[in-house]
């Protein structure tokens, strides 16, 4: 059983028969001490159970290298590629990154945020809705809060994202420029999905005076979703000539269904995805999709955290990292 | 900015103008106090920044409801469905669950384990390799360690999984019973993937006296993997009649490639996946796959944690949750 008090740096120094300064030096730069000494310190750390460098003293100094990322669902999730880029970038910058899964549950989201604050996380990265009470609570803390994947007017602290309404609008322009006349929009009913849908519908109706047919996805994403939505499309009076699918996996699923029922993609029915995940370039036909710049989001966040560490003021509270429509074979 | 000392239960009691005993009662069972009092306490918790019930006092009591799950990669990952079942089960049991992503990096895996121990996690759930030193370190702690997805001979603490060698063996028997004669095995080069491969090869060669052709996947999973492996298969002197694919997404990718090159699945080339993820029953043709019982793994782990909480001794240190081959259209 572990002891109930945390071992200290001097416990390690004692066990390794070196000075506390040497142990300190080892933690900030292992190469700065002799190899044999380094190995002795490493052994002492393991023997004593001393918490390694970054986390040590986090409660005392109110700082840690812990970063907590909260997402609604693991997979299939639109966020996964952004989160992967973030985990990779922040981990290589020395952060201890953990991912919390909220399951679209507000109370659960709140509990994970409170846990991160209790552990004095350096940063919380959120993708879901945050209640006014919890927003206030986060603002009182010294934890950096970064909302990603949207451009809120009143961010809790900092936001790094892009305009979903603009994505919808650009998709409508793209679809029109390709000569399609009967789009079908598959709406992801989250707040961001609704914005994309509204951007698309407004632009399409203004530009063409025509209507759009629609299907609603379910959250959390359910098995069989693509089959169900394709069946819905098949039941329409007139078949759409292009389907805007939300996530690429939904686009992939619709292509599989379309081909199974003898339709050619894009000749009989075109398909557009969202997220530009690996599957978009791997599917046959390859999938036209919306690319959001995961790397840029990750780099922007790493830079913000670094600047905060240095005590610099963050002037730009809402960072727009943009998006791109990538045209491929499917539309 | 937050104060550097954690607010206490009595801070909350003072702010809510109730006794500490009432606050305590509220945390163990909110319904046991009057609605108005409960609301006052909730407000006081938010005002003071008191850490909610489960985490409170975790450092003092050496216990928390924090569960840390470590996986090598978010998506595409073989583990995702097991992790989702676990997150859901443990969250509804009142745990604060976080997922750490190790990126197949031993040092990073170690840092995440140490962080979980430093935060006095109730449990660490690991899928990757753990060095002897870190094993010793975990054993000295009061944290429950659960290795999942394998049946190690000498578990760190407790293991919940199944036999990958047996899966390989059963797949060989299945393939033979279906009359296939030229299997191609796509090996996932992780320790578990190697065991499945060895089980398959030993059983196949013993049973038939024949050879097996092979491809090696890369870890972490790379975009374009299915295309590359299908191209490898196309270059073989004789085309295999069945391909054992590892993850279902690889099976899906191979089916897409095969159909693109005019081959019929399963008539010209049969395909078998692993993991029985949603895609297996959604693909056209549906994919024959190996089902591992995610729900049973999650329930077993929840029960183990509950029993430890109650102070019961865990007699069964290695729990075999088994597997099933699900025959569908693709083989």
Summarize the structure.
With 331 residues, the first copy, chain A, is an alpha/beta fold. The first copy, chain A, has three domains: 37 residues, no CATH class; 130 residues, Rossmann fold (3-Layer(aba) Sandwich), CATH 3.40.50.2300; 129 residues, Response regulator (Rossmann fold, 3-Layer(aba) Sandwich), CATH 3.40.50.
Topology record:
The structure is a homodimer of 331-residue chains.
Chain A: H1 9-16, H2 20-28, H3 35-48, H4 58-61, E1 66-71, H5 80-92, E2 96-101, H6 106-118, E3 123-126, H7 132-140, E4 144-148, E5 158-161, H8 164-177, E6 183-187, H9 191-208, E7 213-216, H10 225-234, E8 242-244, H11 248-260, E9 270-272, H12 278-282, E10 289-292, H13 294-309, E11 318-320, E12 323-326
Helix pairs in contact in A: 1-2, 1-3, 5-13, 8-9, 10-11
GO molecular function (chains A, B): DNA-binding transcription factor activity; transcription cis-regulatory region binding
Protein name (chains A, B): LacI family DNA-binding transcriptional regulator
Organism (chains A, B): Parahaliea maris
Structure report:
The structure is a homodimer of 331-residue chains. By secondary structure, the first copy, chain A, is α/β, with parallel strands linked by helices. The first copy, chain A, is built from 13 helices and twelve strands. The first copy, chain A, folds into three domains: 1-37, no CATH class; 61-162 and 294-321, Response regulator (Rossmann fold), CATH 3.40.50.2300; 164-292, Rossmann fold (3-Layer(aba) Sandwich). Chain A has a six-stranded parallel β-sheet, sandwiched between helices. The first copy, chain A, has a four-stranded parallel β-sheet with strand order 7-6-8-9, sandwiched between helices. In chain A, strands 10-12 form a two-stranded antiparallel sheet. In chain A, helix 1 packs across helix 2, helix 1 packs across helix 3 (35-48) and helix 5 (80-92) packs parallel to helix 13. The first copy, chain A, is elongated. Strand 2 (96-101) of chain A pairs antiparallel with strand 2 of chain B, so a sheet runs across the interface.
